[in-house]
Specification:
Chain lengths: ~60, ~240
């Protein structure tokens, strides 16, 4: 078997959590489409999560 | 032409060229998956026209991050670390299309409609490919890409219904992304593409895939009442 890349398990787990958190926030917003405040909060949650991913500070994530 | 199917446990026994090409194609695919959100999240998440559209931008990004995760896992299992692309500036993306930033809603809609469609073509290249762990992650990824294409198409149609001025803005976005889409298929007669085919990692020559794409997209553009851009104007990879 080949030697796996360092931290692949941890990265996979971290990104899976990120994806789940994003989907959770989106679902919360979409299911309250008549409540602007709830949607705004969901959008803000998505923004915060995505900002972290866009920064791409992998070593911080895997600490 | 390799017709065997390769599992992770067989990887060490493979020819060095196979290992190299598989690592390379997985790295580029991972870069393209994360390259999309890096193009549109910054400006489109706050600027999408409705709150629902903002949430759909976030959902699309979530799906692309998940595609990255799946491709990175396949790469990581053979010892190829693709995590560097997560922090790579857009200007260093492997594929030109992902360099820069999407700043208008027209561009965002057309990007989904035209560029995510190229993404689907690239993924379809791996259908029935020789490396089974790659083949296994495809169905879910392609299903989600189809959703991105449909959303892009619907948003483009929505914009087109808003009058001539808006139509011109959409046409401008089409003119920009269409040639970029064609470039994404790479050089005609590429010797590397031929090696990918030899090792069963891709199905079509670059020019064949590009031709298939044009045959699919051009009638859709015509039906939408848009001009088909000159397929040679502004191209970088012929």
């Amino acid at each position: 078997m080949p030697q796996p890349a360092n931290n692949i398990e941890k990265l996979d787990e971290h990104l899976l959590q990120v994806v789940r958190a994003l989907h959770g926030a989106v679902k919360q917003g979409v299911s309250h489409s008549t409540e602007p405040k709830v949607m705004d909060n969901a959008i803000q949650d998505c923004k915060e999560i995505l900002d972290e991913i866009m920064t791409g500070n992998v070593s911080e994530w895997l600490k | 032409m390799l017709t065997d199917k390769i599992e992770l446990k067989d990887f060490d026994k493979m020819d060095p060229e196979y290992k190299d090409l598989l690592g390379r194609v997985l790295t580029i695919q991972a870069d393209c998956e994360i390259g999309g959100p890096h193009l549109y999240v910054e400006r489109m998440l706050p600027a999408a026209p409705t709150k629902l559209d903002q949430l759909i931008v976030a959902r699309t990004a979530a799906e692309e991050i998940d595609h990255f995760r799946k491709v990175a896992r396949v790469a990581g299992d053979i010892g190829v670390d693709v995590s560097f692309v997560l922090s790579q500036p857009n200007e260093k993306r492997f594929v030109d299309t992902f360099r820069g930033l999407i700043t208008t809603w027209e561009d965002n809609a057309v990007f989904g409609f035209l560029i995510d469609r190229v993404g689907r073509y690239q993924l379809e290249e791996f259908y029935d490919c020789s490396y089974l762990p790659l083949q296994r992650i495809l169905p879910d990824i392609v299903t989600e890409e189809l959703g991105h294409i449909e959303y892009g198409y619907n948003k483009t149609m929505e914009l087109l219904s808003k009058g001539d001025e808006q139509k011109e803005r959409v046409q401008k976005a089409i003119d920009n992304w269409y040639v970029r889409a064609l470039d994404m298929f790479g050089h005609t007669g590429s010797s590397r593409a031929e090696r990918y085919r030899y090792w069963g990692l891709k199905r079509r020559a670059n020019e064949q895939a590009r031709d298939d794409y044009m045959k699919e997209v051009n009638p859709i553009l015509e039906k939408m009442g848009l001009r088909i851009p000159d397929p040679l104007k502004g191209r970088r990879y012929m």
